[in-house]
Sequence to fold (158 residues):
Amino acid sequence: MTEANAEKTIWKGRSSHWTKAHVYLLCAICCWAIVPIYILINRWLQVHCRVYELTTERLHVTTGVLSKLTQDLELYRIKDITLVQPALMRVVKLGNVVLTTTDQSTPTVVIEAVRYPVWLRDQIRKHVEKCRLAKGVRQVDFADTPAPAAAAATDNDR
Fold:
């Protein structure tokens, strides 16, 4: 691979802790008990240890506190990109980017509660198109209904 074609990091980030604010608030109210402290630490670590990295060719999603799991998604496998911004998340300028893919192991990938989700969605879209052009990949959707010519052939066979 030449230096010009080398895979480069476009964006690296984590989910925002705003998604767990209700849990943090409840734990703060009940801080006198041991269990809420454990729950607070557990949720904080789960959110903090989920890292997303978008490169020019892949999306890496790393999760786990002690044991790490990294899932890679080739960008050319992304079929559809959806931006979801619930009202409370819009107030703090966050959003979810939902990727529908052709990958068997991860048909849907959600990049949860990230800052500047519109920019991220646009970057993903731009690099998906670049990857498809570079690899010569086309997305073809086949309908569940038979093609008109095939339907006419089956009618003549009767």
Notes: The mean pLDDT is 87. Strands lie at 9-14, 51-55, 58-63, 69-74, 78-84, 94-101, 108-115. Residues 66 and 91 are 33 Å apart (CA to CA).
